Structures are given as structure tokens and as C-alpha cells.
Amino acid sequence: MDRLRELRERQEIEQASRERTHDLLVRFWLLVVIALIVAYAIVQL
Q1: Structural domain for 8, as ranges
Q2: pLDDT tens digits, residue range 3-36?
Q3: What is the SS3 string spanning the chain?
Q4: Is the full-model pTM beyond 0.85?
Q5: Which of 2, 31, 36, 44 stands 20 to 30 A from 25 (CA)?
Q6: How many CB atoms lie within 10 A of CB 27?
Q7: Longest dimension (CA), the chain
Q8: Among 24, 27, 31, CA closest to 39
């Protein structure tokens, strides 16, 4: 019984870290896209 709860808790922790990694990736790519747009706008001026 305890082992089952331990497994479930570990799975929840893994999923949480996976979601955090996903959030960081999304934020990183948003920053990259914004930087590219800003650079493009500067070049066009």
C-alpha cells in the first residue's frame, strides 16, 4: 500500500518537473522569436 502511494507521488513529481521544463522551453522560444522580430525591425529602419 505504501509502495503504491510512493510510486504515485514519484510520478506526480516527474510530471511536474516535465511541465516546468515545457514551460521553460516555451518561454525560451518566445524570447527567441521576439528577439528575431526586434532585430528584423532594427535592420529595416
Answers
A1: 1-45
A2: 999 999 999 999 999 999 999 999 999 999 999 9
A3: CHHHHHHHHHHHHHHHHHHHHHHHHHHHHHHHHHHHHHHHHHHHC
A4: no
A5: 44
A6: 10
A7: 67
A8: 31
